[in-house]
Amino acid sequence: MPLSNNQLTILVTGANGQMGNELQVLAPGFPDYRFLFATKEELNIANALTAEKYFSEHTIDFCINCAAYTAVDKAETDSENAFLINATAVATLATACNQNNAQLIHISTDYVFDGTANVPYKETDKTNPVSVYGKSKLQGEAWAMQNAPSTIIIRTAWLYSSFKANFVKTMLRLMKEKESINVVSDQFGCPTYAADLAMAIMHIITSGKSKEQPGMYHYSNAGITNWYEFAVAIKKLSGSNCIVNSITTDQYPTAAKRPAYSVLDSSKIKETFKLHTPNWENSLQKCLALLN
User: Fold this and answer.
1) Is residue 244 part of a domain?
2) Phi then psi dihedrals of residue 184, to 5 deg
3) How many distinct structural domains can be found in the chain?
4) Would 21 disulfide with which of 32, 163, 198, 238, CB 3.0-4.6 Å?
5) Annotated catalytic residue, options 69, 111, 133, 228
6) Secondary structure class of 105 (helix, strand, coil)
7) pTM (predicted TM-score)
8) Cβ distance 159 to 190 under 8 Å?
9) How far apart are CA 120 and CA 131, in angstroms?
């Protein structure tokens, strides 16, 4: 179908992930935009020549980078691949965007912080990642801004969806399989429904303000909780009889250290783009309705 003169093209990388899938659900609702959904097989963003070729063959106005290495514990012993996907590939993609006048919108993480704060993290707060995953994502942020100054970086946290593996789907599975489960209660954050973040990104693009307002932003659903309370909410809303026990981080050792407090302050993105951030419990209800 030929493009109308004013139809803009949005490339979504990492199309098979949680965010990529949520953007595919939203795409039909934005007929003024042409979407290109690329999996890692279709577009290897770590390869500069492949990325250059792809951008030369398509006129791209926005690139939403949803491609990421997200195996937090595995990254501790697989740092080469974590940095390749979360940093080197981001640098390559940013360069391609910059050379082709496309705006990069890159998804980052709360793991760039060490979690020692006790008030929500602002974009200007000092970063200090305590895991390989967090370090790789922080490097990706730096290279994205360096190679493409028009980039928007959105840090998010505790992402879940009806697609792919995530905490919500793991809890639902375990609650069916077991009579009781243990969940840590001393790590605090904001569960974020990927569908809400996808809609926020589309709101930013369609606002027409994105290129005037590049830089760093935080986005998560409203409200603060911990993993245990999050699991209890999943239990209640799904009608499970499974017993959920509260444990400490020390009782559940993992290969990668997690931030104890990773609450993000979303006020900047809300004020800049006149965005609403739904409450996490309301969004969880929507996600569970889809899964059930």
Assistant:
1) no
2) -70, 140
3) 1
4) 163
5) 133
6) strand
7) 0.96
8) no
9) 20
Query: Which residue positions in the chain have pLDDT lower than 50?
Result: 1-3
Q: Residue 5: what pLDDT? A: 56
Active site residue 69: no
SS3 of 199, please?
helix
Cα–Cα distance measured from residue 145 to residue 153, given in angstroms and rounded to the nearest whole number? 8
In DSSP notation, 130-146 reads -SHHHHHHHHHHHHHHH
33-38 sheet: strands from edge to edge: 33-38, 8-13, 62-65, 103-109, 152-156, 215-218
pLDDT of residue 210: 97
pLDDT value at residue 3: 46
Instruction: Answer yes or no: is 245 within a domain.
Output: no
| Position 239 in a domain | no
Reduce the DSSP state of residue 5 to 3 states and report it.
Answer: coil
Euclidean distance between CA atoms 240 and 199, whole angstroms: 30
pLDDT at 135: 98
Q: CA torsion 241→247→251→257, rounded to 10°?
A: 110
pLDDT value of position 1? 40
| Structural domain containing residue 157 | 8-165+192-222+263-278
170 phi and psi, to 5 degrees?
-65, -45
Residue 230, amino acid: F
Asked if the structure places residue 43 within a domain, the reply is: yes
CATH of the domain at 90: 3.40.50.720
